[in-house]
Amino acid sequence: MYELKGAEFQPEHFNWTVEERVATITLNRPERKNPLTFESYAELRDTFHKLQFASDVKVIVITGAGGNFCSGGDVHEIIGPLTKMDMRGLLAFTRMTGDLVKEMRNCPQPIIAAVEGICVGAGAIIAMASDLRYGSRDCKTAFLFTRVGLAGCDMGACAILPRIIGQGRASELLYTGRSMSAEEGRAWGFFNALAPVGATLEKAIDTARRLALGPTFAHAVTKKCLHQEWDVSIEQALEIEAEAQAICMQTEDFKRAYDAFVNKQKPVFEGN
Fold it and tell me: Which of 161, 220, 251, 254 sits 20 to 30 Å CA-CA off 23?
């Protein structure tokens, strides 16, 4: 066991603090609504792995800077390069993103997402993979993979989201890619509670501090059982979806979506 506070742990791609046994991860590219890159995906994955052995962290809060949670994978730094990769590279990427979800589930501490503003794509997945979610009353959450020519199954979405909000609601969101409003998310069980704009992080940290004072070993056992007691393991689901998504990344529709975005046009999908 070791501690993850102070000068010995300084992530490069997000802000990190530990106070009162609560670690706060803040995605910090506010000028772009906090998109992810290859490097930030990997650093998040590695951080959640390290948290399995952190003695000073009892609860984790993840949030975004500048009034937004996360806008997903960076269009120019991730999606553009993906259109040029071969299948081996694509599958390495989709497995790596799935590994982030695995590490979030495997770390024993409860993870609380504090969601403000935009929460889409991989950002919606990070919120989904958290144990508790608090949203601002204006937040918009979208699993928008089909809108860029990809399958709705990404990073475990087809396994996890239906268990949170139900099969029919998850199917609608994953097929259409439309935004789920904050009120829908609360009514459907995606969000545990809503907070006024600007107060979501405070709500999440308050809950985190209360949990940090509780039976943390028992919390870890609870988390383990919540995740293990499914009919199909998330590892199987993640591998199925990694393969499916890597295949979709070789389609012309995926490339059309990228080209349309770059040219500020609406993509016209042709199904190939």
Answer: 161
